[in-house]
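Re: weekly structure request thread

Next one in the queue (368 aa):
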Amino acid sequence: MTEIANSPGGVDTEVVGDADVDVVVVGGGVAGLSGAVRLARSRRSVVVIDSGEPRNAPASGVHGLLSRDGINPSELLRVGREEVISYGGRMISDRVVTTGRDGDGFVVDTAGGHRFRARRLLMCTGLVDRLPDIAGLRERWGRDVLHCPYCHGWEVRDQPVGVLATGPAAVHQALLFRQLSDQVTLFRHSIGELGVEDGERLAARGVAVVEGDVTDLEIEDDRLTGVRLASGDRAPLAALVVAPRFEARDDVLAELGLTAVEHPWAIGDQVGADGTGLTAAGGVWVAGNVADVLDGVPAAAAAGVRAAAAINADLVAADTDAALARRRTRSVAGVFTPEAEAALCEQVMGERRHGLDGLLPLGPSQQG
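Done, posted below.
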């Protein structure tokens, strides 16, 4: 394949021809980049294909990542891409449109018209957050419209926080944010009546419950100041917590016979895999949010590393099996060469061995 210079952003700007590699990583988020670094450090040929749509792009910082707390998501990915490249991996800015089997390996085609052949696949395609249909919600997502207490809770501590109930996890979510603020309100919105026990638990922690649908967000000076209800009432807030439906990006995985299944908590879907990320489609691993909708950045990075180690071990076993088969083939073939037959005859028959030597007259030194 033609060598390509990297762009300043650390992503190839052009791809010429096809490439045969050990592993194609689909998705250049923290899971994909972490896996690619581990594979490249194991001297595996790796290509990471990324369409440039990180889920956490709206957030101002990544939290809970040891030694990098608060780092801007785009900066984290930039550094990660540079690390992949520094170990010989390649970053391709493109979108995967099809994947398929090719003998013992795989073929990956991109929207840019390029094809990569790989022995193994690491799919880190992520997920899509499906938000309720409330005007302005998407625009505030990742800023003061939140969902994860571990990613953003500290930043809204001790402030008035609203929880928009969109499903069965709403009560749990409200109690998690109650750990961070004593001004938490649960807006029942679309979930209907609360169970008696849920109501008691919320009351015990001082979480207010408000009936009625939330219809609008109130924004002043580019910050959330409250929500308005269908009744016309207004509730002042500094942050609104919303549990989206998490939908795995599994389109290209479906072509390999893999489909997402419902999360046990009924909060979205994800692709099933074992503890290393190995799926039911042999040779295909998943990592990050496509495999676990609850993975934050640290967990997604760990999942990518874990999957990469399993992929490398699988390739080591395959390489060793192939080398052993070649060795045995050479050994068997070597048994039937003229040199091998002559050596064997001499070892077994000594001077009684057959061949031309046995037909020649005895020399003087060998005569009686």
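The two ends are 74 Å apart (CA to CA). Confidence is low (pLDDT under 50) at residues 1-17.
Next request, please.
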